[in-house]
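**Polypeptide and fold**
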Amino acid sequence: MQAASRESYKIAAERLDAYVRGAEPSAVATTADDILSVAALLRREPRLRRALSDPARSGEDRAGLLESVLSGKIGADALALVGALVSGRWSAPSELLDGTERLGIEAVLAGADIAGELGEVEDELFRFGQVVSGTPELSNALSDPMAPVQQRAALADELLAGKARPVTGYLVGAALAGFGGRSFVGALTRLVELAADRRDRQVAYVTVAAPLSDEEEQRLGARLSAIYGREVSVRQTVNPDVLGGVSVRVGSDLYDGTVLRRLNETRNALAKR
């Protein structure tokens, strides 16, 4: 998002945080569903999207238009939160859509946090992403843009039945629908990061040839927490191809100490002689 859009989103996100304090998880879940239904409407209706982000109209005018379209169709809390979004300045209609979708997802995560489930939801999303990435046939089936979302969602629901919380399945459905315009696996990764961020944590993606022990994982997490100044969720991927050592990615930072990297560097150096 550009600066104006980020500021508008920040104001609405702060209102969301104020709303969820003291709210019941079920009420927050309903509000989240309403906000995401507005995002789906904005995706389907580009003219409405443009009208609600039109810089030539005042924020009050845009909020009034939103209320005229959605009053009685979504809850008052969701209407107020989306109204806070459309009252702000948006650099492009697409950024209003992204902001609405992000706010809905943040509301889902907030509801899970209130219910004391957010850590488990983060774990379940990551593990499901690992299963998908490690099974090419499954990855192709769930990522196929030509297959209807409902068909792919039915497959995901079958895989998750009895193994994950309902909110995890809901978020997987959002990933299948292309949350933020991302691929399915990319959307899952982003959801893991947003869940960690709501818990005031950073995610470290660790690739190793063999699983780290609990003690090794804790030591690595402690070192990374000291570097980044906040708690770190260590997410392991086991890949025998790296041969040994550890690769760690935190945001845009990559620390690659794998044997495979060193072998590749040696091979490249020899090829230049």
About this structure: The beta strands are 201-208, 231-238, 246-250, 253-256. The radius of gyration is 21 Å. The first strand starts at residue 201 and ends at 208. Residues 93-114 form the longest helix (22 residues).
